[in-house]
Amino acid sequence: MAASIFVRRVASRTFSLGPYASSVTSQLRFFSDQEKKWTTEKFDEVVNKDKVVVFMKGVPAQPMCGFSNAVVQILGMHGVGHYGSYNVLEDDELRQGVKEYSSWPTVPQVYMGGEFIGGCDIMLQMHQNGELINELKKIGIRSLLLDKAEEDKKDT
User: Which of 43, 102, 129, 143 is the most exposed place for a label (fewest CB within 10 A)?
Assistant: First the structure.
C-alpha cells in the first residue's frame, strides 16, 4: 500500500532538467538522427556477397547458442566450409535489422544464393529430407553427403 502511494506521488510530479535541458534534448536528437548502418541495401549486398550467409549468435568456430551450433554442424556435414557469417551478438542494430529484413523473428538465419532459406528448424528439416542437397546444388555446391553415399555404394 505504501509503495503504491509513493509511486502515485512520483508519477504525478513534473521533473525539470533545468540548465541541462537543451543539452539532453540535443543529445537525444543526435542519437535519433544517426544514420543506420544496416539498411535494406546493406543487407542485400551482404546476403549476395557469399553463396551461403548465416546470421548467428557467435561465430562458426564458437557458436553461442544451440540453434546456431546446429546450423554450423549441418553445413559442416555437407562440406560447406566457406560461408559468410555475421555475429548478431556484437551489434544490436544487426540483430534487430536482420529480423526485419527477413520477416523472420529468430536467429540464426540462413541465406543461399541471396535467398532466405530459414532458421535452424528449416535447415534441420531440409537436411533430414534431402532438400538441402538440392539447394546447395542450385548455388554450385556439391554436398559431401553425395560423395559419402557413392562411397557406401562402392563398398557394398
Answer: 129
